[in-house]
Amino acid sequence: MKIHPKVGLAVLATTFLPLAACGGGDTDSETASAGLEGRGPITYVAGKDNTGLVAPMIERWNKEHPEEEVTFEEQTDEADQQHEDLVQNFQAEGTGYDVVSVDVIWTAEFAAKDWLQPLEGDLALDTEGFFPAPLEAATYDGKLYAAPTSSDGGMLYYRKDLVDTPPESWDEMMEMCSIAEENNMDCYAGQFSQYEGLTVNAAEAINTFGGEIVDESGKPVVDSPESVAGLSALADAYADGNIPKEAITYTEEEGRISFQEGRLLFLRNWPYVYSLATTEKTSKVKDSLGLAPLPGDGDGPGVSSLGGHSAAISVFSENKATAHDFLEYLTSEEEQRSNLEVGSLAPVLTALYEDPELAKKFGYLPTLKTSIENAVARPVT
């Protein structure tokens, strides 16, 4: 099938999809079997702690485990550099990285190369109460290789002073663009600059309309009727002006600023926008911000691309028993609650989304829960 000629930039997004290359690894089973009962100091490796969350978290652990202290190895705040750092350490079979924070799209890649310890046997985790989508992203070839520690999902921000009821479908949202025109403002934006955000938004459009980027066998199916329908929806919105021309330069921040300045009726973005839009002095939408699940294709909510991170044990760690206990600590209800309250990180435990006090403090939680429940991880081949 030929792709709709208007797809243009949206189709370009799929050419940049960073599909994790999952060729077979070369680590022998002896390495995976080593250190299973090992206890002692370990190192936790993660990206730059911009929230100030990690230091007190590790301090709490170290106070209770003086013989198994954790040292924090802080990486940069650039995802590509974090990934490269982990790859270099794994390739060198270094024992200095015990527990590593991995983006949800890295787990399968690292597991396929035998760099991560399977969480089975004595290292198995109790995953009751976790969202299914983060667990699926942490699983490769039927085995769990990482413990989800934070999740994320896209949501629809809208102007509730102008829109009485948020759109439930993409077509309904497009029809509401007349409201934007009447108020001399732009209608809809997401993340359409040529970077990872464009990939995420294109994947969401494809999945929302029932399509896939690759099928179960890993074969690209982006030219299926459903995938084409999703990409065409984006391309048509751009051609019609419902997605403004400047939106193809938007990352998360440009879209957020446009919405907060009152220049945008609808915005697809992540949960972090909620706090800024409701608290920043310059925000013009503090009292008019509405929040809803991403619009669907007319049969339920839209499909978000899954975000978030997991913690995994390096197969080369010499203290895997301690590392396993640290994973349990990171995913405990107490630490998950702290992650939300201190760092605004979305919990992976469903029970916290039902907590009345948290829902009152973080008004986006019910919508975010719907987003994560319907989220799909980026494809792996």
Furnish the topology, listing elements before pairings.
Layout: H1 9-15, H2 29-33, E1 42-46, H3 54-64, E2 70-74, H4 79-91, E3 99-103, H5 107-112, H6 132-137, E4 139-140, E5 143-144, E6 147-152, E7 155-159, H7 170-175, H8 177-182, E8 186-189, H9 196-208, H10 225-240, H11 252-260, E9 264-269, H12 272-279, E10 289-292, E11 307-313, H13 320-330, H14 333-343, H15 356-361, H16 365-373
Parallel strand pairs: 1-2, 1-3, 8-9
Antiparallel strand pairs: 3-11, 4-5, 6-11, 7-9, 7-10
Helix pairs in contact: 1-9, 9-10
Characterization of the model:
This protein is of the alpha/beta class and about 375 residues long. The chain has helices at about 10-15, 30-35, 55-65, 80-90, 105-110, 130-135, 170-175, 175-180, 195-210, 225-240, 250-260, 270-280, 320-330, 335-345, 355-360, 365-375, and strands at about 40-45, 70-75, 100-105, 140, 145, 145-150, 155-160, 185-190, 265-270, 290, 305-315. It has two domains: about 10-15 and about 155-290, D-Maltodextrin-Binding Protein, domain 2; about 35-150 and about 305-375, 3-Layer(aba) Sandwich (D-Maltodextrin-Binding Protein, domain 2), CATH 3.40.190. Helices cover about 40% and strands about 15% of the residues. Helix 1 (about 10-15) crosses helix 9. The chain is globular. The model is unreliable at about 1-15 and about 15-20 (pLDDT under 50).
Quaternary organization: single chain
* Structural domain tally: 2
Rounded mean pLDDT is 92
For this structure, what is the CATH homologous superfamily of the largest domain?
Periplasmic binding protein-like II
Unreliable segments (pLDDT under 50, ≥5 consecutive)?
1-13, 15-21
